[in-house]
Amino acid sequence: MKKTITALILSGAALCYVVMASAADLVNISVTGRVVASPCVVDTDTVSKQVDLGPAFANNLNQPGGNPVWKDFQLLLTQCPAATHSATATFSGDVDSTDPTAFKNLGTGVNSALQMTNTDHSVIYGNASQMTVNVDNSTRQAVFPLSARIFSPAENATGGTFNAAVSVVFTYQ
């Protein structure tokens, strides 16, 4: 009698499985993702970088493009993981109304703007521009060598204060 009851219970369980299996829908699950390089650490000085351009003399700003005085500075990323081979800085800020490659002076001086380049002045970085540098394998640092100046995108810049703000977003490859 015990064997019969056990056989009936097992048969009933198998029948339930067959009924459930025939009533189930086939579902496909698609899993996607992206493997990205780990971030570096933004150096403390870079987080709130202040670049003092000093005074710009009005006689240097009388002609468009005037002012030969550049100030070199750098942005620094440290502790870059071994899997990170390069870093990209994307610059953004208010654009000057006369020169779309320059950043707007938010101070009181008229016809003056901020021009930012690499240190040999061969590439101008304006709004939405990007600069990519390699991570040094021995120091695990990425250094962005930059230069900036107050310049006149138009004629006859007037005296006053000068203040420009540039935001930077770093991405890693």
From TrEMBL:
SUPFAM superfamilies: Bacterial adhesins. This is FimG family fimbrial adaptor subunit. GO terms for cellular component: pilus. Transmembrane segments: none annotated. The keyword ATP-binding does not apply. Pfam families: Fimbrial. GO terms for biological process: cell adhesion involved in single-species biofilm formation. It comes from Buttiauxella brennerae ATCC 51605. Residues 1-23 form the signal peptide. Keywords: Signal. The keyword Signal applies. Residues 29-173 form the Fimbrial-type adhesion domain.
